[in-house]
Amino acid sequence: MAIRNQLPPWHEKMHLANGREVLIRPVRPEDATILRATFPLFEPQSVAKTFQSSDAELGVDDAARLAQPDPKNEFVLVATEPYEPGEAMIFAMVRGKTEEGSDEAEFHVLVGRNVLNLGLGRHLLSRLSRWTKGRGISRMVGDLPQENSPILDHADSLGFQRQSESEESGLVRVVLDGGASAEAEAPR
After folding, report:
1. What global pTM score does this model have?
2. Among residues of the chain, what percentage have pLDDT more than 90?
3. What fold characterizes domain 12-177?
């Protein structure tokens, strides 16, 4: 009988459009230092909106908070090299957060400039949709890069509605009402 190589929940391997293999998994406390080191590679507009700052650096406290999300109301996945947490470069991350007692989530997708337009942002957005469905979240709100039409089109296919564009920020506000889409499949 063959033994299957199974990954833990919320872990999966993915091949990007350029052939590079990445591991998508929940963020770990060991990732804080690597998050700080790879943070300058993330898209500047998304960083500014996510952290209400134009700093290209992620502070020690912010990195520690991101690497240790509160499981009651926060979900953070990272796309990394297929190495151990704390050793693998982080290419992208998606974060969903609810306020206690709320059925609305705010989300952020950060993708490194070195892996833009390879399908990673779209894939992470699908995983976030799966998380919201499992949590019974009825409304999800976030901002996506205006120039990234593939992720905006994917958001449209998941049922998101575009609410507003901001020329100065370069971001489009998208909202998903009524829960996540049918694309939200069971964990692998």
Report:
1. 0.81
2. 33
3. Aminopeptidase (3.40.630)
